Amino acid sequence: MSELETRYKKLLEPSDELISEIAELEGDIMILGVGGKMGPALSRLAIQAASRAGVKKKIIGVARFSEPGLQEELNRDGIETIRADLLEDDQLKSLPAVENVLYLAGTIFGTT
Predict the structure, then answer these.
(1) Terminus-to-terminus CA distance in the chain, angstroms?
(2) Burial class of residue 72 in the structure, from the number of CB atoms within 10 Å of its CB (0-12 exposed, 13-18 middle, 19+ buried)
(3) Which among 32, 36, 40, 96 is placed 20 to 30 Å from 108, CA to CA?
(4) What backbone torsions phi and psi does residue 59 show, to the nearest 5 degrees?
(5) How many Å apart are CA 24 and CA 61, to the nearest integer?
(6) pLDDT per residue over 64-102, tens digit each?
C-alpha cells in the first residue's frame, strides 16, 4: 500500500467522538453532491462510524455520478446511491425524506 493510500485510509477512521455522535443521531443521513471531491470520503466515514457505533443507519449519496465507476464503488461500500441532477426540481422533489441532509453540491471553479 502506498503512503498516499495509507494516509487516505487513516482519514476514513472515525474518531471516538464521531462514533458517539452517530450513535446518538436520530435518523438516516443523505449527502447531496456525494460525487464531488469530499463526498465519497465523507460517506465512507459516515458508514464506518455507524458500523462501529453498532447502529443501523442508511447513508444515502445523491449525485449525477459523472465519474465512471464511483456509484458502483459507493454501493459496494454500503452506501445507498441515487442518481439525480440537483438542478432539476422534479428530481430534487423525488428524493426521499431523510432527517439529516448534508449539502456538498457546488460549482466547479477554474474551468472554462
Answers:
(1) 36
(2) exposed
(3) 96
(4) -110, 115
(5) 21
(6) 999 999 999 999 999 999 999 999 999 999 999 999 999
